[in-house]
Amino acid sequence: MGEIWGVLAAVASSALGGTSIGATRFLVGAIDPLAIGAFRFGIGVLLLLPLALLQRRNWPTRHDWLGVAGLGLLFFAAFPVLFNASLIFTTAARGALALSTLPLLTMLVGAVLGAEALTARKTAGVLITILGVSMALLSGLATAPPGAWRGDLLMIAAALCMALYSIWSKPYIRRSGPIPFTTLAMAAGAVVLIVASLLRGSFAPVADFGAPQWSGAIYLGAFGAALTFYLWAFALERTTPTRVAISVTVNPIAASLVGAALLGEPLSWNLVAGIVTVFAGIWIATTQPPLAHAVAPDMR
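^ DMT family transporter, sequence as received from the core. Prediction below:
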């Protein structure tokens, strides 16, 4: 039952992540990627900290501080910079589809690190999913902004950061719980982003913010950071990194709907075909054939 809750939390996290791509795409024209990340995770830490203190669970021990801080810099500093920068060059829907390579990267990195085996069925699912992402990204270049491929590559690099975080953070989350771990890791990334933003003068455009921009920034902090990444850590505590990463396929659907509703981005047939193919590939890669289920009881 705990694993089911973990998968559901991961799906909810990915759905929120998809709406966050649309909100980021909205803000990226008003403020630079560093400042967006600083707002997102700074607000997220402010909201998570009281919950962590009230919960009274064990905080990461001194032995874990360096590892938690390193994971925080990887996920809450490097990831958002790459994520936000990618949306300067590409659309919300394309960015979400590029991020959907996360399950593939998680399976491959997990296999390299010995976290889980990469079977022939997983390999077939990986190839089909790559085909689906390629269909959605490459066949719709006529409606993409110039140089969109740069944004796609930046988002894939962001997905690699997320894959490493998902694999390496699991033991830390088990020791201290999702809220204390996420709060401390997010704080490490937020401090770096805030300092970098101050040094670059990235907060200067904030003086011209209106209600829409402030609403977008607050939404990113409350839902796109605090809730999204708490749910992600909650899921990692209860199920495997690959099963958590698979949920990111919900992301393109949410991002596409937000992009169409708020940004006027088109919903094309090749995008729909790509999403369907991605789902098919992920299903193949993460399920066992019926024969395996049939013989499993006899093998016990």
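The chain has one domain: 2-299.
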